[in-house]
Amino acid sequence: MALYALDPFLKELYQRHEEIELQLVHERLSRVICEGVVSGKIDFGLVINPIRHTELVIVELARDEVTFWRNSRSLPNVLLCNPDLLQTQSLLKKAKGINFKRTISSDSLEVLASLAKSNAGTAILPERIVKIIAPMFTKVEGASSFQDRLALVYRSDLRKTAGAKV
After folding, report:
1. Residue 79 dihedral angles phi and psi, to the nearest 5°
2. HSE-up of residue 66 (Cα within 13 Å, Cβ side)
3. CB distance 133 to 117 below 8 Å
4. pTM for the complete prediction?
5. Closest CA to 27 of 39, 15, 38, 35
6. Half-sphere exposure of residue 56, counting CA atoms within 13 Å on the CB side?
7. Under a CB-based contact definition with an 8 Å cutoff, are residues 43 and 118 in contact?
8. CA atoms of 66 and 30, how far apart (whole Å)
9. What are residue 41's phi and psi, to 5 degrees?
10. What pLDDT, in 10s, does the model give residues 76-125?
């Protein structure tokens, strides 16, 4: 997610506030970031489809569409996906008329997009990743999609600090 979510504001934030220091924490699952925010180990999180929690403030930033992507030279019957993602699990349950004989799995959406770009198969990816890595891809006709919510999450008691206000 950092591939597309950080660029729009980090440079401006650093130009406007010279005293701010950031340490970026990357996890393969957004729910791990949410748990880090709830426990106080992480101040702010950029997450996909955040879980509701009484300690969390959730600010929706954008929406995205996850679906099946390919190009005309993609290997037939090869699926590229992260099977641990709820989006992938949901799409595979809904997939009608789409059969794959083999699967290449990875927990990196960027790696999956790169493999798909090299024609290794059809990938389940968010549209924002596709636009950055392989804008020539097309959605698989008739395939289901999953609507993602990109959100900023933080603890409700964090707003009192000077850094949080910035």
Report:
1. -105, 135
2. 22
3. yes
4. 0.86
5. 35
6. 23
7. no
8. 15
9. -80, -25
10. 999 999 999 999 999 999 987 778 999 999 999 999 999 999 999 999 99
